[in-house]
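Sample entry (408 residues):
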Amino acid sequence: MNSNPTSMASSAMPNHYRQPLLQTPFHNRARALSQHDSFVAWAGYTTVDVFTTPEQEYFSVRNATGVFDLTPMVKYRVVGAGAAAYLNHLVTRDVSKLKLHRVMYVVWCNDDGHIIDDGTIFRLGEDEYWLCTAERQIDWLLDAAIGYDVEIAEVTAEVAALAVQGPTSCWVLKQFGLVGVELLKPFELGYFNANGIEIMASRTGFTGDLGYEIWMAPEDAETVWDRLMEVGRTRGIRAIGSQALNALRIEAGFLMPHYDFISSESTIRLGRDRSPLELGFDWLIDFKKGHFNGRRALMAEQASGVKRRLVGLDIAGNKAAHSALLYSDKAGQNEVGNVTSAMWSPTCKRNIALAIVNAPHFAMGATVWAEIYLNRELVWERRMVQAKVVEKPFFAPERRRVTPPADR
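Predicted structure, serialized as tokens:
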């Protein structure tokens, strides 16, 4: 696969304005497998929310291989002599440390040190990068590029992508024809020719499990899908939708925009946006690299101490604490935070959640109380259940790091 994504043929539909949401190159294959015709919007595309049941799709990733249509992930090509300097000014991590054919998770902030978005940077060439995000950010990216020798272009429609995740994912990709894919280390990418199809594969994902993301020209999308499903049939391969992916990423402790934080560019009320320090992203901030957007504000916040933090919670019982308010006392008199994402984890056998908790109650091992409502025969019951601040991720199998992965 050519490292220049603009060389890929565009899959943009003619007269797409006649259809509110675009279809990905995998849409026809996905619709054929969908038993519920349940689709949701993502970055201007229509994508599957659930194919069969969220539980079946969830277990396909934890026990076999799940395939998720990643095409709507917004992709920007950043190229030019000033590309590295520009990205280093934009994000909080030190991009100069990103080696060729490697991937880096990043966040970027406004001048107040509040998160605009998170994403991944792929270094494709000496002066060529991809920046992948869940939301479109072209206005901010272009404004931040003033004064830099860099060109920025959105190439979302020019690249089709699939997330191939789970303990048998490496075996499936090897059978598909990605010779040597097992040698990729976490956050490394490589280029492969699989029976005449050029594919870029990265050992990345949003499930916290062994997994890869494969990137290809849109005209090859259906062929790749069909071949994957055929070679993975004996390893339990299954297409998964957004609901299953959401459960998987909660177990992995990964944050989701609009669930665990809202971009500082879209919040309506003051104080609703979050800094990377509040979200536990201290490790993503490199104050030694020099100036970047939000540096001064983040240094001041670090010096004074954060007033709230996103933490993991282990909650009593088995009722997921969706959107629960948190209190310091069982009587529910002193509110100290709220749950942002929650689930009963089938793998961990725990009732887990991600939550924003005020100081000092976010200390590791601290106890808070969650207000949960149960619907019993059309009658709502209020329960106050104990929740303990714990380490995340909740699920982190060793196989996600092992190179080469074991054949399964």
